[in-house]
Amino acid sequence: MATATIPPRPPLLRGRTVDVCVIGAGIAGLSAAYQLARAGKSVVVLDDGPIGGGQTGRTTAHLSHAMDVQFQAIRRLHGDEGARLAAESHTAAIDEIEKIASEEGIPCDFERVPGHLFVPRGASATELEREMEAAHAAGLSRVEMLPETPALAAEAGACLRFPRQAQFHPLRYLAGLAEAIERHGGAIFTHVHAEAVETRGATRRVKTRGRAGVTAGAVIAATNAPILGPQTIHAKQAAYLTYVIGARVPAGAVPHGLYWDTEDPYHYVRVQRRAPAAGSEILIVGGEDHKTGQADDGAKRYLALEEWARARFPMIEEVELRWSGQVMNSLDGLAFIGRASEDEPDVYLATGDTGMGMTHGTIAGMLLRDLVLRRDNPWRALYDPSRLILRALPGLVRENANVATRYADWVTPPEVSSVEEIAPGQGALLRRGLAKVAAYRDPEGRLHERSAVCPHLACIVAWNSAERTWDCPCHGSRFDAVGHVINGPANTNLAAAEGAQ
Ligand SMILES: Cc1cc2nc3c(=O)[nH]c(=O)nc-3n(C[C@H](O)[C@H](O)[C@H](O)COP(=O)(O)OP(=O)(O)OC[C@H]3O[C@@H](n4cnc5c(N)ncnc54)[C@H](O)[C@@H]3O)c2cc1C
Ligand code: FES
User: Fold this and answer.
1) pTM for this one?
2) What is the pLDDT of residue 59?
3) Gap from CA of 416 to ligand 1 centroid (Å)
4) 27 CB less than 6 Å from ligand 1?
5) Considering only CA atoms, which of 18, 9, 16 is closest in space to residue 40?
6) 263 alpha carbon to ligand 1 midpoint, in Å?
7) Which atom of ligand 1 has the smallest separation from the CA of 488?
8) Residues contacting residue 387 through CB under 8 Å, at least 6 positions apart
9) Per residue in 227-278, pLDDT tens?
10) Residue 453 DSSP one-character state
11) From CA 50, how far away is CA 276, in angstroms rounded?
């Protein structure tokens, strides 16, 4: 976000009738819109923020076919054929990004680099051996073990090397993708909130907060967290916050590549180019994940990341950037892409990025294009949102038990007993009678009060002081400091607080 700007698009002032309406202008929505516009469909994209203003603007943009949950788990959960299709689809997604960037002339710093999964120095390489075997079984025969990890020899042990991974600048890619959609006849409207999708016979109507709506043959909700579809989809994924620092290093000091370790949560590293005149590059280091809304210690996590990074990359000069974002971890390791429900044949969703949203979003583009066009696609069943993988049940039970405990937040003591205790720029929960109130004092000292009850399924939101947001600990809905929804599954703002001051 600090190194790319995308020109805003107009608001939706009059109603439109098109073949396909896509809600969400992140990588998933724009990839789907691009594929469908290229296939000759009339397409409208709506986003309630700017293009790339969701998690795509916060990504670290590793483009990898090495599964985040590892191939051993994908094989156990989805079988040998499922693991093979997962490897095939993520490989195809990297190739597709490279092809689109080249065909559409998108200057997005796309670069092929090797990926390295490494263990800490002195740790056993057994896990890597098992993972190499699973990757080979999934068809990635060129994955190899190296005794030392390039660039990290002092602090890391052996690694698995995945050839032909890639990296790019995600917002520069989206900027080019948006222009390509428009060149192929599509239209993009920003700052338009989609409220609901109604089915009338063969058409669907996307209702927006304004008066104008969109009538479409098919609707794709590419909103990262799903704003439609069955409630069960929320039980099949869990929202996590992840933290990132961007540190200045001398140009050429760290070999370009993707690096990530076997810790839980793991660390992930790559280098972003700058203009040659800068003489420096940005080392991007992420990790320190926790369940959304269940910790408010961002400052400590940034420090821990910096300490970890400085111990391994002594060439770091200064940490220039710090940010966090949310990933939706699917409990069986793969995204949910396809029909939102059996009753709605032409309403589709893409969610459950599992930290691989660049490739999952690009897979969504290709797969949803084929579903809308009624073409066969070999990945359809693997990513079907209605799937229930019985082997994922232990994780499902664990995550949903964690959600159940959060309803106790209704009766926990307030964080402050009076609004006077809230400093400018901070938020806190207080109790007013039986109600819990989310109170925020802006930097000018004005107080903003909203109900602390999440409009999704009524958990109590928690203050996130690093991002100045209210985050729901149950399924990851997020609201800005004054209560506007910025992340689903909630699709409305925090309600007015009773007796607000
Ligand atoms: C710190 C971090 C690091 C990551 N690193 C990687 C990585 O290295 N590699 C990788 O592959 N993935 C990574 N991910 C994951 C990846 O960034 C995301 O999965 C991906 O960007 C999600 O794209 P999306 O299009 O699904 O969602 P988004 O980019 O969030 O787009 C959804 C859009 O929908 C809009 N929207 C939502 N509701 C509405 C509504 N009601 N009306 C209108 N518009 C609406 C939002 O405004 C938003 O613009 C990372 C994520 C984070 C946070
Ligand atoms: S996100 Fe489900 S209750 Fe808040």
Assistant:
1) 0.95
2) 96
3) 33
4) yes
5) 18
6) 24
7) 38
8) 332, 381
9) 887 777 888 899 999 999 999 999 999 999 999 999 888 899 999 998 888 8
10) B
11) 29
Ligand 2 atom having least distance to the Cα of 489: 1
Going 168 to 169 to 170 to 176, the CA torsion angle's sign is negative
> Does the C-beta of 246 come closer than 6 Å to ligand 1?
no
Judged against a pLDDT cut of 70, whether residue 501 lies above it is answered with no
Ligand 2 and 459: CB distance under 6 A: yes
pLDDT, the chain, mean: 93
Name the phi and psi angles at 75, rounded to 5: -65, -45
Which is nearest to 322 in space by CA: 139, 465, 219? 465
In this predicted model, what pLDDT tens digit does every residue of 361-401 receive, in sequence order?
999 999 999 999 999 999 999 999 999 777 767 776 777 77
Q: How far is the CA of 29 from the centre of ligand 1 (A)?
A: 10
Peptide bond into 265 cis (omega under 30): yes
Which residue do the tokens 């800068």 mark? 278
Nearest CA to ligand 2 atom 3: 457
Nearest residue (CA) to ligand 1, atom 44: 47
Q: Kindly report the length of the chain.
A: 501
DSSP letter, residue 479: E
Whether residue 329 has its Cβ less than 6 Å from ligand 1: no
| H or E, element range at 426 | strand 426-432
Question: By the 8 A CB rule, do 71 and 134 touch?
Answer: yes
Is the pLDDT confidence value at 342 over 90?
A: no
Nearest atom within ligand 2 for CA of residue 454:
4
Give the whole-angstrom CA distance, residue 176 versus residue 4: 12
